[in-house]
Design brief:
By secondary structure, the chain is of the alpha/beta class. The chain has helices at 18-27, 47-56, 77-92, 111-121, 138-148, 166-176, 193-200, 242-249, and strands at residues 10-15, 31-34, 61-65, 97-100, 125-128, 152-155, 181-184, 204-207, 210-214, 236-240.
Length: 253
């Protein structure tokens, strides 16, 4: 498995709960991106979720996504205020990093807002999330993120998944030249991570490593949905699986 001090392949897990954080740590992950609202692509988790994740893990770096809603990455002044308060909360709770991304209406990286949020987050580690994948000028954005002081960029190479994005991710790694970490994510699994690693030269990877978790409810009324009809069942959720995490951390033969 990967050395916990960061030698070799580093795995970050997209964790949707405290239990997912526990599973990620048990499987050998170095870090989690803690999120709520996974069907929306991830939104800011609650105070209680962050605090409990800190309490029940010991070696895991916890990075909190700062995203007030699903949808696009063009934020209003009210939403920006919420993001600043959430960054303040994350710092108070002692997490190791935060994750955010902001665009202008024309699809460029909003460098001014990114800088404002980064200054508020200091000295935490900062990751730009996959807002990068829908920006108009990614190579310009890459240089802006480096100048701002972001530690890493989470990207699928502006493709639906990281395998399809391999050529672009490889070019990002080349252009980054060690100034910022390029972290492939989206569709990274135990059966393709070795290929992504070999062809992109990336060293950090973002994955969900989830399995379906069935409800423990004995009585079930399945005629009354609590949310979107897109949800298959109110009696199934997903959770990080330590066995899948462990498979990801294994270096290729």
């Amino acid at each position: 498995m990967v050395d916990k001090k960061g030698m070799g392949r580093i795995i970050e897990i997209c964790a949707n709960s405290v239990q997912s954080c526990i599973e990620a740590e048990a499987g050998g992950a170095k870090r989690v991106e803690l999120c709520a609202g996974i069907p929306e692509g991830g939104t800011t988790p609650s105070y209680g979720e962050i605090r409990t994740a800190r309490l029940f893990t010991s070696t895991l770096d916890i990075h909190v996504i700062i995203r007030p809603r699903g949808g696009d990455f063009l934020y209003t002044p009210v939403e920006i205020r919420s993001m600043l308060y959430d960054i303040e909360m994350a710092k108070q709770l002692g997490v190791q990093g935060v994750v955010f991304g902001c665009l202008t209406k024309d699809g460029d990286m909003d460098a001014a807002l990114m800088k404002q949020l980064a200054e508020a987050a200091a000295p935490l580690s900062i990751t730009c999330h996959r807002a990068f994948d829908v920006c108009r000028a990614p190579f310009t954005a890459l240089e802006q993120l480096i100048d701002i002081g972001c530690r890493r960029v989470l990207t699928s190479g502006q493709q639906p998944d990281a395998v399809q994005g391999i050529p672009f991710i490889a070019e990002l790694v080349r252009r980054a030249a060690g100034r910022i970490i390029i972290m492939p994510g989206c569709g990274v699994r135990e059966d393709n991570i070795a290929r992504i690693e070999a062809e992109t030269k990336a060293t950090e990877f973002h994955a969900s490593a989830r399995s379906v978790l069935h409800s423990r409810m004995a009585y079930r009324n399945e005629n009354v949905p609590m949310g979107s009809l897109a949800v298959a069942s109110e009696f199934e959720t997903v959770q990080t699986d330590r066995r899948k995490v462990a498979a990801l951390t294994l270096s290729p033969e």
